[in-house]
Structures are given as C-alpha cells and as structure tokens.
Write a sequence for this structure.
C-alpha cells in the first residue's frame, strides 16, 4: 500500500513538472517566432520557474545556502544596473535547485521524452503555419565565401532562430535516446537537424549538434557512465576558454575568422571600440546583433553580470558528483554554441541539459 502511494506521488509530481516544463518551452518558442518579445518570453519563463522553485522548497522544506547568496548577488546586480531583466541570473540557480531536490522522485526519462515530443510538435506547427499560411515565411539572401545562399526562416523570426528553437527538444531527445540505447532514435534526430540545416544554412549550430549526435551514436554504450575528474574539469573551464576566444576575436578582429564567421568579428570589434567594456551594462547594446553570448553579456550587460553568470553556471556543474557522458557532451555543446549564437540565456535549453544531468538519479519507471 505504501509503495503504491509513493508510485502515485511520483507520477503526480512527474506530470506536474512536465506540464510546467512544456509551458515554459512554449514561451521560448513564442519569443523565437516574435509573437511575443524576447523579454516577455523570458519573464513568463521566470514566472514558471519561480512557481516550481517555491513548490520545491515547500516539498523539501529547505532553502539552499547558495541560493540565498545568488539571490542577494542578483538583487545587487539588478540594482546597480537598474535593469529588472537581469533577474534572469537567478533562474539558472533555481533550475538546478529544483531538479536537485525533486529528481529522486521524478521520472526523468519520461520528462525528457515529453519535452522532446512537445518541442518537435510545436516546431512542426510553426513550420506548417509558415508553409501553408505564409507566417514568417522569409527568405534571406546573403553572400558566403564561395557564393550567394538563400536561408529560410520557416516561421521563426530569422533562420538562426529556427535552429535555436530545435536545440532544447533535440538535446532532450539525445538524452532520452541514449537512456533507451536507441541508435535509430539518434539517427532520427540527425535527419531532423540536417533537414533544418538544408533550409536555414545555420552552419555552426548545426555542426555542434550533429557532432554531439554522431559522438553519442559511436559511444552509445558509455553514454550514461559518469565522466572522470579530468573531463569534468574541462567542463568547468570550457566556458572561460570560449570567453577568452570570443574576446580575442573582438580585440584582434582576424581576417580569416571574419571570412568564416560572416563578418562577426568585425562587428564585435566595432562595438568594442565604440562602447568599451564596463562594470555595468549599456542599454544601447541590448538589442544589438552580437551572435555571441559571451560578448553580448560582457558589452551589453556588463562585467559584473558576466562574472556572476559564469560563476553560477560553473558552480552548478561543480556540485554534481557524477555527470553522465551524454550530459557532459551537451554542456560542451551548449557553451560552444555561445560563441556564434546568443543561446546561453535560453532557459528552455538549459533545462534540457539539467534534466539529462539527473537522468540516473530519478525515480525511473520508463
């Protein structure tokens, strides 16, 4: 009888969290289609996570010490910058705390499966609306190295946003199919990504995602095994290495990378010369087209925001004792995407990775 009650409780909690995760994923999609603004989408996601965070505190009856520290640091950052949007910093700490507390009683594989299915379903609806009704059916022509290319937006605000919208469901799909040891599932994900790449020509994002899928296809049997200390150490420093590389692009403005990155380093260099680096954010750059998460945070939100952002994310990795290989790959891919896309503050992507982190800690019945 007691076991049945526990099982029912686990099912209820999994369904409850699944609904909220799907809801915030939907808000992320809405912002990428420009039906709502990015700031509105982030605020609605914040509300969802705050509700879930309060629930997890009531469930566990404890408030983690580090959450109090990060909440205080976030308040100070918001006050200094006079920017309520920077409260997003604390969301990353909330996400980790929620799954840290609830993962032992959640069916994580089922959450990943639903997150993947919901994301692909929403994506298909957006693409269908674009093809049939002409919604955001934009084609952008641009010159790349050896000729003119056409890039389709497929219902999203721009071709890059189309690929970004797929990252969260694809990441959760990778975690789920690795758990199920399904190479067929991984091949299905590969086909989806290659199809979208053919339409959008989003090179870097596609390359990162395809690399992860291929790597997990090859190392499938070891996908759920925890990485050693050396690899975990790489995960801790890799965002710092990508930050240094991004700053090198900004300072040096190398011709060779300008060619392959469609002139982005030249744009970074121009922003740096005009605005410089400051402790606090610069509102003039909030809507600037960076296509680099690290430099966007550094120049538009300020050094204080960037340092706290990196510290929270590195700490979230550090406190996890056993990180599965698949989660390690997703973290590396996530930070790599930050070099050419403004993805590091997309909560829906971060959630998909954190769920995979706790894949082996949940109350699994899948």
């Amino acid at each position: 009888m007691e076991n049945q009650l526990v099982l029912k409780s686990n099912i209820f909690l999994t369904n409850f969290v699944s609904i909220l995760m799907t809801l915030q994923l939907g808000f992320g999609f809405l912002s990428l289609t420009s039906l709502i603004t990015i700031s509105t989408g982030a605020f609605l996601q914040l509300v969802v996570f705050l509700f879930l965070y309060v629930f997890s505190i009531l469930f566990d009856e404890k408030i983690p010490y580090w959450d109090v520290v990060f909440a205080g640091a976030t308040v100070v950052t918001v006050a200094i910058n006079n920017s309520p949007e920077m409260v997003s910093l604390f969301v990353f700490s909330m996400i980790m705390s929620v799954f840290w507390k609830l993962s032992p009683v959640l069916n994580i594989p089922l959450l990943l499966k639903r997150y993947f299915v919901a994301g692909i379903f929403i994506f298909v609806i957006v693409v269908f609306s674009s093809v049939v009704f002409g919604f955001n059916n934009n084609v952008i022509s641009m010159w790349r190295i050896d000729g003119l290319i056409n890039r389709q937006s497929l219902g999203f605000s721009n071709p890059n946003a189309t690929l970004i919208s797929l990252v969260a469901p694809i990441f959760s799909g990778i975690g789920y199919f690795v758990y199920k040891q399904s190479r067929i599932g991984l091949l299905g994900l590969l086909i989806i990504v290659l199809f979208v790449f053919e339409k959008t020509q989003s090179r870097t994002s596609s390359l990162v995602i395809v690399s992860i899928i291929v790597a997990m296809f090859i190392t499938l049997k070891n996908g759920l095994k925890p990485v050693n200390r050396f690899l975990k150490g790489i995960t801790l420093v890799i965002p710092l290495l990508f930050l240094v590389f991004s700053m090198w692009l900004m300072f040096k403005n190398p011709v060779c990378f300008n060619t392959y990155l469609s002139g982005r380093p030249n744009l970074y260099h121009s922003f740096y010369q005009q605005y410089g680096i400051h402790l606090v954010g610069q509102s003039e750059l909030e809507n600037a087209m960076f296509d680099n998460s690290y430099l966007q945070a550094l120049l538009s939100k300020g050094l204080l925001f960037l340092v706290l952002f990196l510290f929270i994310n590195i700490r979230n990795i550090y406190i996890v004792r056993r990180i599965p290989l698949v989660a390690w790959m997703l973290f590396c891919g996530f930070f790599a995407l930050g070099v050419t896309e403004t993805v590091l503050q997309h909560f829906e992507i971060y959630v998909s990775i954190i769920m995979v982190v706790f894949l082996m800690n949940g109350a699994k019945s899948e």
About this structure: The chain has 15 helices and two strands. The mean pLDDT is 88.
